[in-house]
Amino acid sequence: MKKTGLVLLLCLIISGAFAQEAQKIAGIWWNEEKTSKIEVKEEGGQFVGTIVYIIPEKYVNGEPEKDNMNPDAKLRSRSRLGISILSGLKYNSSEKQWLDGRIYDPKNGKTYDCYAWFEKDSNLLYIKGYVAGIKWLGRSTTWTRTMK
User: Hey, where are the domains in the chain?
Assistant: First the structure.
């Protein structure tokens, strides 16, 4: 009986550690150009990212830029502020990466498969978007954690 309790306790501790590790990606991030902030949070076991801030210098006629490169013509008049650009990321504890995601680039209107990881600094999030399932065929970006 003591062994079963010990095993259960160890399982709870380990699963809690994995959950903490997975949550490291959550927060608010500056994009690489420092023109937008993206809030990453968990929804239904996956991580998603939404643009929550655009620097006023990027406003056009007093409003945030529009999603004018969107392939869906009906969405081109919507503001970039508030759009979801990151979806579906799931933490893989063995690879210490968030995999199977999608990232939308409002600058060109394209959506790419993506994955994300940290290197030494958990305040720098590396994201690589790629096409056709070929990870080396793509481009990386680095986001910087911010407080708000």
Answer: 2-146
